[in-house]
Amino acid sequence: MNKNRILVAAVASIVVVGFSTPHASAQGTAAPKSEALDEIIVTARKVEERLLDVPLTITAYTSAAIESAGVIGLKDLAISTPGLFTSSALGSRSSDRIAIRGISAVAGTSGFAGIFVDGVYVPSSFAQGIEVSNIERIEVLKGPQSALFGRATLSGAINYVTRRPSDQWEGKASASVGEYSHYEFSGLVSGPISDTLALIGSARTYGRESPYVNQLTGLKDVGGQSSRNGTLGLRWRPNDDFEAYARILYGKDDDESAAVYHQNSLANNCLPQLVPMSTTSTFPTYYCGEVVPNV
Prior knowledge:
mainly beta; disordered N terminus; 4 helices; 5-stranded mixed sheet; 6-stranded antiparallel sheet; 7% helix
C-alpha cells in the first residue's frame, strides 16, 4: 500500500527550557537561595504561555527530552506519556489505535485523538512517519480540545511543533540497524544563507523487511515497511518587525500487506458474537495482538 503525503504549513515556535538542577554546597547542605523551576513555554492555546498558566492537562517534551527518551515514533511517545496508549490495529501502521485517557476508536483516530503538525491536522498514519530530528517540541493535550483544534479531538490532541531555522550553522545525524534488515538514518542541517534568509533541511529513511513468510508464495512479502521523509523550510526576516516562514514537509510510506489479513480466521480472539440461530454460543470475529512470525 503506497501513501504519498505532502504538507505545507506556517509555524511560530519558541524555545522550551528544561528543569533547573538544585544547587548544593560542598558540605552537602542546600544553598541559601530559592529553588524554582525554569519556565516552560507552550503554544497549546495558539499563543505563547507558561505551562503553569495553561488550564489544561499537558505533557510537553523538549527536543532534548525526545532525544534522551529515544522517541522515534508515536509508540515510543506513548510509552513515556501517562494516559496515552497506542496499539496495532490490523497489524498496519496506517490503522494504529490511539487512546488518550482510555478513550479510543476501533482503529485510527476517528474523531477521538487528533494529531497535528504545527496546528495542521494530519491522519494517524502520517504520525508514525513524522521525522523527530526536526521537532522542537511535542505537546500531548489530554481531554476534549474541540474549541482550539476542531473536531477529531474528543479525547485529546497531540501537537508536533517543528523547529525554525537557526541563526548559526548546525547539524546532526543518527543511524540505527537491527534484525530483519532494520535500518533508520536521519539528518538535519540548519543555518543562515544571507543576512535576511535562513534555511533548515532534514531527511529520514527507514526500512524493515518482513518477519513473516508468505505460505502461498514462499517469500517474505508480508508485513515489510519502509518510509521516506523530508523537510525544507525558509525563513525571511528583513527587519526586526517582520518575519515570514514557509516550509514543505514530505512523507511517503510503502508498506506490504499486513500479516493479519493472511492469518486463518480460526486464530481470532476478540469481539465475540453470537453464532447465528443460537442464544449462548459465540465466536470471535477479530484478532487482537501481534501476529506471531512463522519463520
